[in-house]
């Protein structure tokens, strides 16, 4: 039961961190000159890819969560898999809106 709680907590916390980076409205100078912010974003992207792999393994392979025979966990893993695809594309696309500014 503790493993399932940790799984859901980390999954939701990672999505919240991706949402924070998308909506925090950092400027272009923040990403160019603030090295800790840039590395935090990179670590978040790597962490999100790791969790997306975990979600994929829960959906498509035989493992601990499949042995429980709880369809709710498999359904939530599918939801998180699609949510991570959207969240990662959000976080990776942060600097591109600055290229499209009107002058």
UniProtKB/TrEMBL annotation:
Transmembrane parts of this sequence: 6-22, 43-60, 72-91
Keyword line: Membrane, Transmembrane, Transmembrane helix
Domain of life per record: Bacteria
Protein's recorded name: Uncharacterized protein
Annotated organism of origin: Gilliamella apicola
